[in-house]
């Protein structure tokens, strides 16, 4: 992906401790159109004149630099600023921060460790000079601490926006009936269950086939036994018939023998 395309997507950029050259930070250009949070702590800046135009920038961290004036350019280059941290710079008087009036959305300003904080009635005068402010150095007009002191509250706000986007994305997926990646596992489990059911059905079918084959084998064995029994009976009947026939054949022989035998009485009669 081309670097220019990446610039369009960046919302937070931290360049702390990078070195600036002649009031410029190399690589920081107006191509970061979506940038909302920029941190340039301790980069050696003496002026903000060379900052790129960042219309969507909301929070700018410039602490621990050597900025002493020229803040009027911020209204031109970062018109939507809500948080500005100038602590640890060379701000000496109220006139230096007066141009910040033009930042209508500015809610929080930090001037810690700047000489201007040593002025009499410093806080009261700053709130009068910049009526749009809600918090100065982390506290409101009633000395109540800001819940989003420093960068923490702003970063949390970005995280909340990202979470909301994620929720909207999930809702859209649900409405479109598209299963998120996290549900793929359940889908695979469903497929596994279906495969198990199919395996069980196949197993039952195989078992039924085996039972049917066993029944057929038993029936065939029973039929073979019946046939064998009938054959044995036929053989026995056949043998009995042979014996009877032999006996019948022997009887005429005996009769014929008896007929050929002459009794003594008959012989006497013949002599007479």
Automatic annotation (TrEMBL):
GO biological process, one term: regulation of apoptotic process
Subcellular location per the Swiss-Prot or TrEMBL entry: Nucleus
InterPro entries reported for this sequence: AN32, Leu-rich_rpt, LRR_dom_sf, U2A'_phosphoprotein32A_C
Composition skew (Acidic residues), residue ranges: 148-167, 181-254
Annotated GO MF terms: histone binding
Its job: Multifunctional protein that is involved in the regulation of many processes.
Protein name as it appears in the record: Acidic leucine-rich nuclear phosphoprotein 32 family member
């Amino acid at each position: 992906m081309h670097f220019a395309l990446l610039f369009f997507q960046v919302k937070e950029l931290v360049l702390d401790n990078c070195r600036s050259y002649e009031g410029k930070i190399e690589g920081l250009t107006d191509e970061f159109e979506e940038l909302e949070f920029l941190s340039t702590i301790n980069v050696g800046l003496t002026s903000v004149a060379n900052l790129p135009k960042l219309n969507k920038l909301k929070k700018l961290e410039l602490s621990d630099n050597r900025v002493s004036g020229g803040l009027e350019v911020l209204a031109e280059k970062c018109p939507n600023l809500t948080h500005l941290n100038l602590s640890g710079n060379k701000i000496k008087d109220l006139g230096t921060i007066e141009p910040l009036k033009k930042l209508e959305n500015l809610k929080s300003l930090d001037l810690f460790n700047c000489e201007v904080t040593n002025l009499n009635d410093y806080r009261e005068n700053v709130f009068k000079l910049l009526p749009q402010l809600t918090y100065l150095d982390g506290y409101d007009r009633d000395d109540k601490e800001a819940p989003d002191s420093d960068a923490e509250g702003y970063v949390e706000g970005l995280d909340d926006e990202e979470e909301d986007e994620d929720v909207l994305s999930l809702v859209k997926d649900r409405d479109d009936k598209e299963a998120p990646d996290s549900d793929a596992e359940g889908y695979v489990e469903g497929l596994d269950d279906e495969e198990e059911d199919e395996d069980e059905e196949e197993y039952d079918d195989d078992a039924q086939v085996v039972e049917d084959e066993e029944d057929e084998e038993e029936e065939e064995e029973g039929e073979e036994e019946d046939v064998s029994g009938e054959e044995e009976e036929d053989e026995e009947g056949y043998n009995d018939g042979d014996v009877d026939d032999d006996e019948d054949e022997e009887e005429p022989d005996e009769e014929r023998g008896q007929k050929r035998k002459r009794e003594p009485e008959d012989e006497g009669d013949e002599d007479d």
